[in-house]
Amino acid sequence: MGTQQKKWTYLIILSLIWGSSFILIKKALIGLTPIQLGAFRMLVTAIFLLIIGFKSLKRIQQKHWKYILYTAALGTFFPAFMFAYAIKGIDSSIAAILNSLTPFNTFIIGAMAFGFTFKKKQFIGIIIGLIGTLVLILKGAELNPNQNYWYAILVIISSIGYAINVNIVKKHLHDLDGLAITTGNFLLLIIPVLLVLLFSGFFSTFEINNQTTTALGYIVVLSVFGTGIAKIMFNDLVHISSPVFSASVTYLIPIVAVMWGIIDGEKLSLIQLLGGGIILFGVYLVNKAK
């Protein structure tokens, strides 16, 4: 498979996997708290990756570890909790659409902090995307008064973390393959995650019943596919393409997530869909202006 074909194949597979992750988080939250979900998700992923990728750790040199720590924290640890809390407060499909801001942030942070070329015309795309974000949030708050749309801020912060992550991988971890980077990430997260589970009362108060068993099942699927395998593929995608192309997987994620949301009975107005379309159009302009 050629590089061009490979990167588009990765993009489509990742959009299907990550687009389905939002509804899995929503379902898992029925039996778990956001803290427990985020931590248990990372623990299962860490075990899975150490089984399949332990040998890859020898490829990591001392110079790499600090950047692997940064990407572990910003690209995995904090977003795992923030997305769990966000989807507790707003619809999973809305969280997925807001996650489309990742390419914006990837470009902005890449230009300001990592030396990527910056063009003033790209501000047009950024402004359009921000308008779409406001439409989506304000209309969502009106349509769903029982939901707290302040939680949307957590998705936006997570997208900034993802943006920093992808720029670090491209600039400082370009000589490591995706499996080594991802396994290194989760190796560093095992102890913090166990501490979070311990202090969350998971080991002392967790009860096994149909609801929690089902929730754990969703988390296992989410961990193995949505976090483990997907992150390996994504880190490889960053290597064979550009940071902005890689982050553009968020073009397709909302389509998959909205379909799952509608199937699950989530309410989306035409104006909200328009807001999502405006965001994606803004991201398109940012990429086109490169």
Characterise the protein shown here.
The protein has 290 residues and is mainly alpha-helical. The chain has one domain (3-288). Helix content is 79%, strand content 0%. Helix 1 (3-28) packs antiparallel against helix 4, helix 3 packs across helix 8 (178-199) and helix 4 (92-98) runs antiparallel to helix 12.
Descriptors for this entry?
single chain, 290 residues, mainly alpha, 79% helix, globular
Topology summary:
Layout: H1 3-28, H2 34-53, H3 62-89, H4 92-98, H5 102-113, H6 122-143, H7 152-172, H8 178-199, H9 202-205, H10 210-240, H11 243-247, H12 253-263, H13 270-288
Helix pairs in contact: 1-4, 1-10, 1-12, 2-3, 2-8, 2-10, 3-7, 3-8, 4-12, 5-7, 6-13, 8-10
Query: What is the makeup of the main sheet?
Result: none
Estimate percent helicity. over 70%
Structural class: mainly alpha
* Average predicted local confidence, pLDDT: 84
Count of distinct structural domains: 1
Order of secondary-structure elements: HHHHHHHHHHHHH
Number of strands: 0
Overall 3D shape: globular
Please count the helical segments: 13
| Poorly predicted regions | none
Q: What's the N-to-C terminus distance?
A: 27 Å
Radius of gyration: 18 Å
**Percentage of residues in strands:** under 5%
